[in-house]
Design brief:
mainly beta
């Protein structure tokens, strides 16, 4: 991991929690000069420039242990010497699983263009709050190593409709960006890293859905087709000759801190790639057929349907059979001759 010019470097060991975000919770200062008195500081949504040990966490040599992280711990972490020199910064975002299961109808969604988490110094970027309820008064805010909860269009950037455009990004623009309503509701958080170095890692700025393909690109300001080595959580993965690495059908095991290295050019900053689940129900056509034979209500309904269909048929058949039997029995009835008394004319004829 490359060292800063001022001699301090911050790293984070991957540790996971079931109750809060699956993000590093043991940041440490790797220092070249121990006499400089490096301390770990952070900016979050509720505090500014607080120090590990006195204000939060527990110091353990050059590391800071945070036993339990909640969404309020999201922010920018960095090392700072007694003289005010700073190391690189790490952005940590903490989310709760329940927030992935439900999304308020009046929540805003933050997007960034170009859609990537790392940028070169001097590039331009546009951030937009896509809001369902414009009356909520959503504004764009950010936390960086220099400022806390500053507002887009007022303290930085230029507003254009629902977007805030930053025409020139600098390394101290690295940090967390989000939309916030007047009532304090927040959107998703986007982490942007701006580097003055020669290499960046183009990775998705939004979480990747489990099962999708993940493509990482190692690029310089002039080319994105140079051979590059890719690393995850500090461990080498492989070298790609064209500078592109694709992970097919990602799972939670692919979540982690990625970076890339181009020989004779330089190394990119690390970026956290998050993998999420798809909680949407499958379409009806893909649902497996349900076993309804054991459902008593279904059996009763089927019996009633059969009775309604077959009863008229049975009744009509019974009537037809009865009529047929009666007609057949009528052939054997005794025949009687009815004799009528003769008329006077007939009697005269008989006398003749």
């Amino acid at each position: 991991m490359a060292k800063c010019q001022d001699g301090g470097n911050i790293s984070a060991a991957a540790a996971f929690s079931d109750l809060t975000a699956e993000l590093p919770n043991k940041p440490s200062c790797e220092e070249d000069d121990s006499s400089a008195g490096w301390t770990l500081r952070r900016n979050t949504t509720r505090e500014t420039r607080t120090q590990c040990g006195p204000d939060w966490g527990r110091r353990d040599s050059s590391s800071c242990n945070i036993n339990y992280m909640d969404p309020a711990e999201s922010g920018v972490y960095w090392c700072e010497s007694r003289e005010g020199a700073t190391s690189n910064s790490i952005n940590i975002t903490v989310t709760v699983l329940m927030s992935l299961l439900s999304c308020p109808t009046d929540q805003a969604f933050l997007t960034v263009s170009p859609s990537r988490s790392q940028m070169f110094e001097g590039q331009s970027v546009s951030l937009s709050c896509e809001e369902d309820d414009s009356s909520a008064g959503w504004t764009l805010r950010r936390n960086t190593t220099r400022e806390r909860r500053t507002q887009g269009g007022v303290d930085w950037g230029t507003t254009a409709g629902s977007s805030c455009i930053i025409s020139y990004v600098a390394p101290w623009y690295s940090g967390m960006y989000w939309c916030e309503s007047r009532e304090g509701a927040t959107s998703n958080i986007i982490t942007i890293t701006v580097t003055g170095g020669p290499v960046i890692l183009q990775s998705p700025v939004l979480p990747v859905m489990e099962g999708e393909d993940l493509t990482l690109t190692c690029t310089t300001k002039r080319s994105s087709n140079l051979p590059a080595g890719f690393y995850k959580d500090g461990s080498f993965i492989r070298t790609e000759s064209a500078g592109h690495m694709t992970i097919h059908h990602v799972s939670r095991s692919d979540e982690g801190l990625y970076k890339c290295l181009i020989s004779s050019v330089g190394e990119s900053p690390p970026s956290w790639v998050k993998v999420t689940f798809d909680f949407s129900p499958p379409p009806p056509s893909s649902l497996p057929p349900s076993d309804t034979t054991s459902d008593p209500l279904h059996l009763v309904i089927r019996l009633v349907v059969h009775l309604v269909v077959f009863c008229p048929y049975c009744i009509s058949t019974f009537i037809m059979v009865s009529l047929y039997r009666d007609r057949a029995a009528g052939k054997d009835l005794p025949v009687s001759v009815l004799m009528t008394p003769p008329t006077q004319a007939e009697e005269g004829l008989d006398e003749d």
